[in-house]
Amino acid sequence: MRNYLDEYDAPAQLGATGGYRIRLRVIGEMTARSLAGDSVLPRNRKTRALLAFLALAPPGPILRARLAGLLWSTRAAEQARMSLRQAVHELNKALSATGETLLQATREHIALRAGAVWVDAQEAEKIVPRSAALDLLDGELLEDLRDLDPAFDVWRRAENERIRTRSRALAEAIIAEGDPAEATAAAERLLALDPAHEAAWQTLIRHHLHRGERSLALATLERARMALAQLGGLSSQTERLGEAVRNSARRDPPPLSPPAPAPRATPARGARVGVPPLTVIGSADGHLSLGLAEEITTALARFRWLPLVSTGSLARMADGLRDPAALRRELNLDFLLDGTVQRIGDRVRVTLRLLDLNAEGEMVWARKFDRAADDILTLQDEIAAEVVAQVDPEILLIEARRAAARPCTSERGYDLLLRAIPLMYRLEHASFTEAGELLREATRLEPDYATAHAWRAYWHIFLVGQNWSDDPADAMEQAALCAEKAIRLDAADARALTIAGHVRAFLHRRPEDAAALHSRALTLNPNLPMAWVFSGITLSYLGQHEAALARMARYKRLSPFDPHAFFFDGAKMLPALLTGDYEDAARIGRQVTELHPGLTAAYKPYLAALGHLGAAREAAKVRERLLSLEPGFTIDSFLAGTPLVRTEDRDHFAEGLRRVGL
Predict the structure, then answer these.
(1) 243 and 357 part of one domain
(2) CATH number of the domain within which 300 lies
(3) Is 241 inside any structural domain?
(4) Residue 49 belongs to what domain range?
(5) What is the mean pLDDT of each run of 10 residues along the chain (662 residues)?
(6) Closest of 450, 449, 404 to residue 423, by C-alpha
(7) How many domains would you assign to the chain?
């Protein structure tokens, strides 16, 4: 399968005579790979810096004196020249793995062979669609080479700023072109670089207005007003845009009296949710009540399967908020997320609860937050992030249980999808097979349903991972087909993107490709726990274990009691094992296998950790359980299928398995 991400990860010139021989990534942590996919990255940090500088410098030879001064600026001239000679020797040796001479050195100059190295920072803007280039440019240049040398640090910071400027210019060009989907993504990226970029704010306001999300448009307008307050406020153009939003709301006022009861129409694809302004207790600011409700609504809007009712609509129905039947009748709501806000001194207390209006207003989730009141915007962002990360899976499970209790007579893909999800997560062979049939039927009935295709791809991941497929190669291909179709149908669905990334990393052993998909997913929805977990797994495959642990910690902060914790928590075992934290890896392994003893993937890092700990008695029981689930498992089969990129990581994992007798 190919899409726009393949265009920069496998450029057409690769393999052509005189064309690229190395793929070099300098955004984020540096990597260098040959055509065969083997790492040719030197071990020494300064040798890596030499390669990066030569690749990013304008074409042509570079003076040795300049390179020595850049990388060894604190040493005497002769010592710096000797160090450079050693680095050149090491770099030449590393690049020789390509089978060709790529480094050209004379007594005075050094250069890389022209056109031999593909560099992400230089090739990004050739990607189509161009918004994908923003994902590639999203990161710090050579982040693993910080504090290398004072002179190099100055160069790295200047080069990093140049790349940020290019990223900003690219985002501005995409906005100017006006394609709605691309312009919205570009505006979000531009505001991450420059929160006071008024054209980006205008783009987001128009996006919400075009989608009929008036309350979100007004909330975005107010965020823009605060961001630009110290720069003279909003321009007349943005103020006119805000007036257009307000006028659109006036043209569609709420009814003066309740309309006649009408048959309730269940949303075709999703549970309809509303977040009214919070009830103010005591001296809390009313603006905080409305602002927090709007922020939660905005964050929920990133979960594509949840249709939302605007906060403004709910505010106009304030008197009827205590009557679940009225809310269901008037606004067609399935769930209401309401609560209170109270200010006590320099602290703010927010209490939230989720009511299931299809169960007569039963409270199905609740959470209390106590925060310092010194930064209201940060407070709103943090609370909204945690709330939506926890509410999304809760609603999904409630809807799934409700669908499973109904007679299976539906011809809607949404209902079939809901029935499939809990069956899939049981990881029992019979129910798992039934889930696959339901998902297949959902995509047949509604071939344009992106969410169903994404979950079907996810099902294939488990099918292969559990070793339940009679034809793993076909299952892997089906996973890729479903994942790619989900992305094509809805390129802004973060869940579909991160599932597609996991297909690439876990099944097709292409973690570098996967990292770009996860990055885009997190840009679209930074509050999606699955995306933090899958992106963390991918980073661990790439050998970036500390970064992986940080991402998994972010998932745990967002959703500490996630309904799918048995799977998500288990992901942390891999970086824990490969960083030598065997005790923690074994602890997680015990918890996960006790919660879900059928998850075969959990036993492998658990066993390897026990092997390194020398815990023979416990390992014998775990090994027996693994082999009962996966009788053909061997170290050779593990090495043949693992996505781990670094040889040392593969050897580390395998050694732990050897020590337990596999």
Answers:
(1) no
(2) 3.40.50.10070
(3) yes
(4) 4-169
(5) 35 43 86 83 93 90 93 92 94 90 92 88 62 60 87 88 78 74 72 76 79 71 72 76 70 42 47 87 72 85 81 62 68 87 86 90 90 80 90 90 74 86 89 94 91 95 92 92 91 91 93 89 90 94 92 89 81 94 95 90 95 95 94 92 94 96 92
(6) 404
(7) 5
